[in-house]
Design a protein that fits this description.
Strand order of the largest sheet: 6-5-4-3-2-1-16
Order of helices and strands: EEEHEHHEHEEEEHHEEEHEHHEHEE
């Protein structure tokens, strides 16, 4: 199980790249795996700059089929092929993601040296990935847009060898059974896991909701999240524009994070017009103190409770 997640903000800008901010993409580095939310143009360059590597287990989650969130895919997949990637890549996204890839790769040809495993998801779908679950919910945009949660499963509580010995459980396979939550028989009695294990420890939960107005569905998904990464690139004086384009102000995102009980909030999809991050940050922090406006390549490390 993971001891933490590194959140690497690859592209924090809106639909137009700026000198300071690339197009949307955020990577989670967990147990040697990369889980990447969205893939704006130039994502492979950002990954190279961040030193993330191109041949590790990788899962990509696409929120929706607007160009600034998906047009980096062909370049990234081609770069991985050029660098002789040999591991399969898992790609999830909304309806018509497969159609988009077919249009690109009919003339180009799919990468020959590794498999791209595509699965289309709908709102409310869940994918069990072993140690964690990917959950989806509808965001509030002008086309189908998915918000995602990457939620680690609870870990078993800490095992106490001295308690097991005291109860007469010999060291070896029976200890493993108890650590996996299974009772074991010692002589004439059953030893229960809770006699030698502390309470289970919750895993980490990261929620990504971009290109969205504040939505009850997102609030529910973000309940008690360790980190909510939310669209929030407009200042309050431009709220009418945020509403017109189905985006959120930083303050609106902060209100949602607070009501969801999230521990931290990161504002992304920063409008090219928003030149002064301090205004955005100030407006959001008046509502929710644990807010950041990350820069490209900033890394935020989330640690699990011991």
């Amino acid at each position: 199980m993971s001891g933490g997640i590194d959140v690497v903000f690859l592209g924090t800008g809106g639909s137009l790249p700026t000198k300071e901010r690339g197009l949307p993409s955020v990577a989670l580095r967990r147990n040697g795996e990369l889980i990447i939310f969205d893939c704006g143009e130039g994502t492979q360059r950002q990954m190279m700059h961040a030193g993330l590597g191109f041949n590790r287990p990788t899962t990509i989650l696409i929120s929706h089929l607007h160009g600034d969130h998906i047009l980096g895919l062909p370049g990234l997949l081609q770069t991985m092929s050029s660098l002789a990637r040999d591991k399969p890549l898992d790609l999830y996204g909304p309806k018509d993601l497969s159609k988009f890839l077919d249009l690109i790769y009919k003339p180009l040809g799919y990468p020959a040296n590794y498999q791209v495993r595509v699965r289309e998801l709908g709102p409310g779908d869940e994918v069990d990935r072993g140690e964690y679950v990917i959950k989806t919910t509808p965001a509030k945009h002008d086309i189908l847009c998915l918000a995602y949660a990457v939620a680690e499963k609870d870990r078993p509580g800490r095992f106490h060898p001295e308690k097991a010995k005291r109860l007469g459980v010999p060291e070896g396979p029976l200890w493993g059974e108890l650590q996996h939550g299974k009772p074991v028989k010692v002589e004439r009695r059953m030893v229960q896991p809770d006699e030698v294990l502390d309470a289970s420890r919750p895993g980490l939960k990261v929620v990504y909701a971009i290109d969205t107005r504040p939505a009850e569905t997102v609030k529910e998904l973000a309940k008690d999240a360790d980190l909510l990464i939310h669209d929030g690139g407009f200042t309050e004086d431009r709220r009418p524009k945020a509403q017109e384009y189905y985006h959120s102000t930083g303050r609106e995102a902060a209100q949602l994070a607070k009501s969801a009980g999230a521990k931290r909030l990161a504002l992304v999809h920063i409008s090219a017009v928003t030149r002064d991050d301090s205004v955005l940050l100030r407006e959001a922090r008046r509502v929710f103190r644990q807010t950041i406006v990350p820069q490209d390549f900033q890394v935020l490390t989330l640690k699990q409770l011991r």
